[in-house]
Amino acid sequence: MLERDRMRCIRCGVSVEHRPRSIHHRQPRGMGGTRLASAHRLSLLVLVCGSGTTGCHGEIESRRSHARTLGWLISKFEPADPQTIPLHLDDGRRVWLLDDGTKTVEIAGA
Ligand SMILES: [Zn+2]
């Protein structure tokens, strides 16, 4: 996953090589992501800048309902495969994360 995201925050693109960084789980345990099968799916893990209270990670955690509509958080009641639920970036592009460790990024303006 670190390789997929090339040490950059997937949300804002900043390099996190020398900055606080954390791994955001799109389906946190509190939201029902307790099944082992889903806990380590690469489509559910994203590298973001900041901690749980700062940077992009902080923003995701502080605006959870907003994050849910943008794909950063996935409800345990969501029947769709997380691989089919895109992350919405601030610039309007969408990113699909796949369990094989790759991602598909929408071309800007497409
Ligand atoms: Zn960021």
What's the number of extended β-strand segments?
Answer: 5
Distance between the terminal alpha carbons, to the nearest Å?
Answer: 26 Å
Parts with pLDDT < 50 across at least 5 consecutive residues: none
Mean pLDDT: 88
The structure class reads alpha+beta
Question: What can you tell me about this protein's structure?
Answer:
16% of the residues lie in helices and 17% in strands. By secondary structure, the chain is α+β, with helices and mostly antiparallel strands. It has a domain at 21-96. It starts with 20 loop residues before the first strand and ends in a 5-residue tail after the last strand. It has three helices and five strands; from the N terminus they run E-H-E-H-H-E-E-E. Zinc ion is lined by residues 9, 11-12, 14, 48-49, 55-56.
Which helices and strands occur, and which strands form pairs?
Elements: E1 21-25, H1 36-39, E2 45-49, H2 55-62, H3 64-69, E3 87-88, E4 94-97, E5 103-105
Antiparallel strand pairs: 1-2, 3-4, 4-5
The structure holds zinc ion.
Give structural attributes:
5 strands; single chain; alpha+beta; three-stranded antiparallel sheet; two-stranded antiparallel sheet; binds zinc ion; 110 residues
Summarize the structure.
The chain is of the alpha+beta class and 110 residues long. It is 16% helix and 17% strand.
